[in-house]
Design a protein that fits this description.
The chain contains 13 helices and 23 strands. It is of the alpha+beta class. It has 2 domains: 48-351, Beta-galactosidase, Chain A, domain 5; 359-582, no CATH class. Helix 1 (2-47) packs parallel to helix 9 (445-464), helix 4 packs across helix 5 (376-390) and helix 5 (376-390) packs parallel to helix 12 (551-574). The radius of gyration is 31 Å and the shape is elongated. The two termini are 49 Å apart.
Amino acid sequence: MGDQKNLILAAILSFLVIGLWETFIIAPQRAEMQRNAEIQAEIARQEGIDGVPVPIGEGGVAAEITALLDRDDALARSQRVTIDAPRVDGSISLTGGRIDDLNLKDYRVTIEEDSPEVTVLSPREAGDAYYALFGWAGGKAVPGPKTEWTLAEGDTLDRGSPVILQWDNGAGLVFRQQYEIDENFLFTVTQSVTNSGAEATTLSPYGVIARHGEPETQGFYLLHEGAIGGFDGITESIDYDDFEDFEMNVAERARLRKFEAEDNGWLGITDKYWMTALIPQTHKPFTGAFKLAGREGAPVFSADVRLPPVSIAPGATETSVIHLFAGAKQADILKMYEKELEAESFYDAIDWGWFFFLTKPFFWVLNTLYKLFGNFGVAIILLTVLVKTIMFPLAYKSYVSMGRMKKLQPQTEKLREKHKDDPQAMQRAMLELYKKEKVNPASGCLPILFQIPVFFALYKVLFVTIEMRHAPFFGWIKDLAAPDPTSMFTLFGLLDWNPPTFLMIGIWPLIMGVTMWLQMQLNPAPPDPIQKKIFAWMPVLFTFLLGSFPAGLVIYWTANNILTIIQQSTIMKSQGAKIELWDNLRGMFSRGKKPES
């Protein structure tokens, strides 16, 4: 029992640390980051920003200073080609050929139906500039970020309807960029150069993803946001803060870290739910780089791809293909692209965490159940049933042991009273009693030991997978990835005020607390008075602790408590243990009845 209690106390302290960290560290940091972002945005608006990503090697894209504009005004500064595909809309700027205006049709900023679409990419002149551009490096007369392309073919980019931009450098080279998009989030950019001059020229195709300013991140210790890539099967994840540690490259006016891929790879910038990534043509070597340019207070983060140089003979045309993923990190979509484009580890752009051996199968089960029943809350409950079923043999042994210990409780109390002045003698007598009755006190800790990684793995799945974002349950739960929006301290919506985070104790956390209290009544009472008080307050502690956790996690914990009560009481009763819980509850209800006349 001592080991079991220590384990439970360790679990309590772990959850308490997480809750306190979330309430008093993470929440204030988020608020502070938001304030800093607003201050930096205002400074940038007044002063302008400097720094545009430079393709790896020769500094082929010039720096420019542009005063920041409202998004609509920024979009109006250049001629554009409309994007209207099945799952995205936006536009391509003819200035630089940038893909710099992209919204996701299937995702909204909030759960409100009239909420605007999620914006992934924004134009260079906007405060949250985030875009992709493509070109050729190595020559003097090559297209750059200010190049004015002309629309050669097509008028609207859609699935099955590509558009082609063209630019003639006036020195014998004609550049063309063909943009295609599939039914999801994948652009295919085919670049070509036709040499009509008298001499051969050598150029290197490249692609760049640039993000101006450091965005507010959400995950901290739970989630990676920043640069990400896979090179010949090796995944690299770099936080925004770590860009400062890159080696300074004076020629490119940027801090730079290069990667060499021999056969395949990809790299980009990831948020919690959204990502942009460049995927060069498979089975061709390339050089990838993450870079930090710009000046202090106005950083420019970029992910660059540079393919090997090609020689373009007079009268010849050379082409290059780079794919651009820009959209939601939907698990099945990433898995599909990983297979089709042979982009190893692309599926791992979702941060599955240290418990990936649990989070990946958990998500697969949840997603499969969701497809069958159409509700992720129902899927979570069914996953709980599945986990309890798998763990039943282990739980059975544990609950049998608990039942026997509860049955032996009168004898153990006598031993404690008999040897209250000799702890060692009491311990020897207790061990002899357990050995005689074939009871293993430590067996009760095994289900709890397994529940801890299950808890954290499910928390991770709820936190990082976009499938859980804005996924409703029933009633007032409109987003399983967010906390229960109700609070007992507002009388569940009757009082118009916003309590602090630790007072957001909704209906589901209260149900969880009650079921936890009921479940604990089945366990043998701890002999130590201090431990007894701690255990008595555990349901209250967990109610406040889980009040700020995702509602899906609280529903899982509640369902687990209910199933545990059913299993444990049934098994303990079969061992002859008296279940005081039911007698106590019957007594509570009977005391509230009026006497019969």
